[in-house]
Amino acid sequence: MYVEGWNVHRVIRPARLANAVVERLLLRILEGEFPPGTDLPPEAALAAEFAVSRTILREALKALEEKRVLRIRHGRGTTVRPKAEWNLLDPLVLSVQLEYESSPELVAELGEVRTALLTLMAELAARRVHPPQREQLAAALERMRAAVEDPGPFHEAATAFTRTLAEAAGNEVARCVIETIDVPHGGQDDNPAKLIETMKLRLLLAEAAHATVAAGPGAPAGSAPVPAPTSSPAAPGAPVPAPATAPGAQPLRQGQAATVPLNRHGVRTPMPQSARV
């Protein structure tokens, strides 16, 4: 079987070749060639199919075992585990599933998790944010607005916004989870119009998170942020005014509708008002 990346005219590093085998084998499992509960062919047969050494094959099988996709029983073979046991937060497992088996249920679940975590981080940041972080959030959001039709710079700005929000919230675990489920958004797609649409929706969610931070702790949904001073600078010790947000941006609050959940590009179309985080 042909392995992507193979070229007889150049030497491929063993780690890269093992990664290629991991991805191709995972794809064959998702396509149903090796359903959950079934045993894989013997190592010698698989190594011959992928045109790799048994050492490389074992490295690939071990990697899939660590991702909880396979169960290796020495002397008894290798079995595909049920999908319910797979590590869905593994970047490769998640990206391959979204690329080749993007079920509406998985997309919806990722959207719910991402929106809930952003909501939590925005509320925590509203209480804990420091003035430099306010400036960094506003700057990252402005870059997102300016690059809303340019996938590469937009994704960089969106990543900076999420990282700053997590730092302001004091919750690195939430940042790691969000960045993991954002892995499928690579900045390229065969449908540019659709990609731009999803980036605009993701921008709306960032606007809402920024509005939550700007409104301050305990502010009701829809509250306007404190206006910036127009004359002399604030006296020492005075509270720093919140940065401006886009007109109409509504703060995120726990229990509100998940306005812009994630799809394979980073977001998807808005959910009905009855849907709750």
UniProtKB/TrEMBL annotation:
Residues 215-225 have a biased composition (Low complexity). GO terms for molecular function: DNA binding; DNA-binding transcription factor activity. InterPro entries: GntR_C, TF_FadR/GntR_C, Tscrpt_reg_HTH_GntR, WH-like_DNA-bd_sf, WH_DNA-bd_sf. It comes from the Bacteria. Residues 226-244 have a biased composition (Pro residues). Keywords: DNA-binding, Transcription, Transcription regulation. Pfam families: FCD (PF07729), GntR (PF00392). Residues 215-253 are annotated as: Disordered. Residues 15-83 form the HTH gntR-type domain. The keyword Transcription regulation applies. This is Regulatory protein GntR HTH.
